Amino acid sequence: MPQIDFYILSSQSEKSRQLFACRITEKAYKMERSITIQAESNKDICDVDKLLWSFRDDSFVPHHIFTGENDDAIKSISVPNNKKQVNIDDILVNLSNSLTENHMEYQRIIEIVINNSKDKENARKRFVAYRKLGYEIKSHTI
Question: Is the pLDDT of residue 110 over 60?
Answer without folding.
Answer: yes
